[in-house]
Every structure is written in C-alpha cells, then in structure tokens.
Design goal:
This protein is an alpha/beta fold. The strands form 2 sheets. The protein has a 7-stranded mixed β-sheet. Strands 3-5-4 form a 3-stranded antiparallel β-sheet. Helix content is about 40%, strand content about 20%. The chain folds into 2 domains: about 70 residues, Orthogonal Bundle (Chemotaxis Receptor Methyltransferase Cher, domain 1), CATH 1.10.155.10; about 160 residues, Rossmann fold. The chain has 11 helices and 10 strands. It is globular, with a radius of gyration of 20 Å. It binds S-adenosylmethionine (SAM). S-adenosylmethionine binds next to loops.
Length: about 280
C-alpha cells in the first residue's frame, strides 16, 4: 500500500499560495484532501519524508524544476462540462453550418477530443451536436475521445458523474433531462449520460506523443489544457502530426492559457484560442 502523508493546514496554505502566485491556480480550503492525494506521489518520487521538506525544497533553486510536476499533479485531470463555453458556441453557430454548407447535402462530421480526461468535454461536444443537427441520427457523425490515462478513459466511457457543483453549474435542467439519467450509487446521487450522446462517442487510450493509429480527416479537434506543460519541441511535433489529419478549413481549439505562436505555421488564429488549418 502507498505511504500516506499528513498535509498540515499551514503547509496546505503555503503550497496553495505558492501555486497561486506562480500560476494563478486558485485552490480553496476544501481542496486540501485533493492536494494531499495528488502531491503524495511527488513526495515519494523525491524520496521526501514529509510536506515540510517539500515546502522547503520548492523554494530552493533546485526546487524550480519541481514546479511543472507540481502543477501537473494538481491540474492533471481537471475538466468540466462546457468548459470554455465559447468553443461550443463557435462549433454550433459557425463551424458546423460551414462544414455542412461545404458538403452540399453530405453529412459526414468527425470531431476529436484529444486529452478528454473524464469525458465532460466529449459529452459537451455531443450535446452541442445534438442541439445543432436536428437530424443527427440520419448523419454520419462521430466523436473520437482519447486520453493517455486508462482510468480516465474508463471513467469517461461509463459517463457516470457524481452530482455536485460541476454537474449543477455545467448542465442546465433541460440538458440534465434530455441527456442524463439519475442514478443512486452507494447512497450518492449520480447522473449517467444517456445513449443519445454516448453512442456518438468512441473512447480510446492514446498517448499524443506516440504515432497516431487513426487516419482522420477531422473537421474539428479539441486539444485543450493538455500541452501546457509539454516543451516547445514536443508541441511542434504534436501539432505537425495533428495538422496532417486535418483538412484546410478545419479548426483546432486549444486551452485558455495555450497558444501556437512559434509552435506551428499550419494553423491561423481566427478567434479566442480557435485556430483554422491553413
Ligand atoms: C487538464 S485535462 C484536460 C481535459 C479537457 N481537455 C479540458 O480541457 O477540460 C488534461 C488531460 O490530458 C491528458 N494528457 C496529458 N498528457 C497526455 C498525453 N501525452 N497524451 C494524451 N493525453 C494526455 C491527461 O491525462 C488529462 O486527462
């Protein structure tokens, strides 16, 4: 069994403040257990005995290399329904009508959620598509959702979420009714995504740093909040590979703190963190 550590309140406040000053990430007091469970493996990796040693280490010059690991451990799988709403609005109001018009009666649509975490992103895409394409079941529409982490892929494909702030803030009452079923599991209220959205999505494990097994072409790619801690060369290689699966005019949505300047000439910025394949 993994060794557990005791994260004292003052250590939590010190680390939360440090993280906030360096990255802008805000962690409220209720995030102490989350921080402890995620940073414990960093203490083990660094062979430290307790959080006091970790707090002392991160402020030393050698400790600077710890920053990306710390941020990654804390933010790794954070996601929510309709995160960065403007991407879904763009999809609905601009990109899907544009693709359909260009197909002149055709109805093939392929979307990839790369780094889908626990699935809220591909389900948000699926709901957006259902709301945009009234005859979606008569079209050839597919979403591919991939993640490095097999636990995330399995969680995502179950489509099961505990009711709490993310569900309540992310989904409207109407969306809950149309796209989810209520479930009680171990005495806790959950929702499970309905088949009308699940059937649009294929979930697969995929490391973005490895060769891609699929051929595309993809009309839309979401690769959001994934590459932020990749170095520039790794980002260049990744977006080159992605561009090869994307026809001219297709779009790529990236995370709010990411950008492609100096990384790729294959994409042109056309909106807030929205790029067109050129
Ligand atoms: C912060 S989440 C982002 C989830 C979602 N895209 C969003 O913006 O809400 C980042 C996800 O990227 C995945 N990831 C990190 N490195 C990856 C890699 N090399 N290949 C594939 N997925 C990766 C992580 O497992 C994690 O689930």
């Amino acid at each position: 069994m993994s060794e557990s550590f005791d994260l004292k309140d003052r250590e939590f406040r010190f680390l939360a403040k440090f993280l906030n000053e360096k990255t802008g990430i805000v962690l409220g007091d209720n995030k102490r257990p989350m921080m402890n469970s995620r940073l414990s493996r960093r203490l083990r990796a660094l062979k430290l005995q307790n959080y006091k040693q970790y707090c002392d280490f991160i402020v030393t010059p050698e400790g600077e290399t710890e920053m990306p690991h710390m941020v990654n451990a804390i933010t790794t799988n954070l996601t929510k329904f309709f995160r960065e709403k403007h991407h879904f609005e763009y999809l609905k109001n601009t990109q899907i009508p544009k693709i359909l018009a260009s197909q002149r009666g055709g109805s093939r649509l392929r979307i990839w959620s790369a780094g889908c975490s626990s699935g809220e992103e591909p389900y948000s895409i699926a709901m957006t598509l259902r709301e945009t394409l009234k005859n979606i079941d008569g079209t050839d529409t597919k979403i591919l959702a991939t993640d490095l982490d097999t636990n995330m892929v399995s969680h995502a494909s179950q489509g099961l979420y505990k009711i709490g702030r993310t569900v309540e803030e992310g989904l409207t009452k109407r969306q809950l009714k149309e796209y989810t079923d209520a479930k009680v599991i171990n005495g806790n209220d959950h929702i499970q995504m309905k088949n009308n959205v699940r059937k649009l999505i294929t979930f697969k494990q995929l490391n973005l740093l490895h060769p891609f097994p699929m051929k595309g072409p993809f009309d839309v790619v979401f690769c959001r909040n994934v590459v932020i801690y990749f170095d520039k060369d790794t980002q260049r290689t990744l977006f080159k590979k992605m561009a090869q699966l994307m026809p001219l005019g297709s779009i790529l949505c990236i995370g709010h703190s990411e950008n492609l300047s100096g990384v790729s000439d294959d994409f042109k910025l056309i909106g807030q963190t929205i790029y067109e394949r050129v």
